[in-house]
Amino acid sequence: MPYRLILASASPARLSTLRQAGLSPEVIVSGVDESQVVAADAAELALQLARLKAATVADGLQDDPAPTGLPSMIIVGCDSVLELDGEAYGKPDSAEIAVQRWQAMRGRTGVLHTGHQVILDNGRQLGRTASTVVHFADLSDAEITAYVETGEPLVVAGAFTLDGLGGAFVTGIEGDPHNVVGISLPLLREMLLDLGIAWRDLWSTTR
Ligand SMILES: Nc1nc2c(ncn2[C@@H]2O[C@H](COP(=O)(O)OP(=O)(O)OP(=O)(O)O)[C@@H](O)[C@H]2O)c(=O)[nH]1
């Protein structure tokens, strides 16, 4: 059953993660103002933002519901935040803030939460958050300065990457690694299964 899979995200890491897993998503960026959303905790914030992104893209498509009730289109929205000391952190707003974040993170442990919202064109939808514990190396001030100067911390949630320059600064994780990069493949598989869609049916036939 060929599905139209839409990734409601500008994240290059989410797109490459899905492609490496054999999927061929279209990208439609939601462009939502993330500052408008507040939530009780970091995990809920990530989920609410994922929901807003997926719903915004779904509204823009406004396709008629699948007449047979069987879905033909799958929209996936995600949002990632780092929880540290009970606070939720997205992308740092400046290099100075990125330095402050790392001075607080180094040698400590945070939780990277990624909210996932899946909306089908037959009206069904599911939202869940995956959380991965992340242990950070005890960076020196010079390392923090050098890392922030690369610019990488400024464009990623939590001011770090697992699969980029930041990889040297993550000493370990507990949970799904892809969730840290921005989209949890095992969680997405489970959500689609619960929505009646088999993961293998999303593998691109043009592999
Ligand atoms: N490559 C990589 N990217 C990461 C990592 N951690 C977080 N990110 C990225 O940081 C960004 C988090 O910001 P979000 O607001 O969730 O997503 P975005 O990139 O702004 O894109 P939208 O979904 O359109 O809002 C995403 O692009 C994540 O893929 C990581 O370990 N590796």
Rg for CA atoms = 18 Å
Strand content: 15-25%
Q: What does the main sheet amount to? A: 7 strands, mixed
According to DSSP, the number of beta strands is 7
CATH C-level class is: Alpha Beta
Shape: elongated
Helix content class: 25-40%
Give a short synopsis of this structure.
This is Nucleoside triphosphate pyrophosphatase. This protein is α/β, with parallel strands linked by helices and 207 residues long.
Descriptive notes:
This protein has 207 residues and is an alpha/beta fold. The chain has a single domain, classed as Maf protein, CATH 3.90.950. The protein is 31% helix and 24% strand. α3 packs antiparallel against α4 (141-149). The two termini are 16 Å apart. The model has no long low-confidence stretch (mean pLDDT 95). The structure holds guanosine-5'-triphosphate. Residues 9-11, 13-14, 29-30, 53, 78-80, 90-91, 156-157, 161-164, 180-182 line the site of guanosine-5'-triphosphate (GTP).
Comma- or semicolon-separated keywords:
single chain; 207 residues; Maf protein; seven-stranded mixed beta sheet; 31% helix; elongated
SSE layout:
Layout: E1 4-7, H1 12-20, E2 26-27, H2 42-61, E3 73-84, E4 87-89, H3 95-105, E5 109-120, E6 125-136, H4 141-149, E7 170-174, H5 177-181, H6 185-194
Helix pairs in contact: 3-4
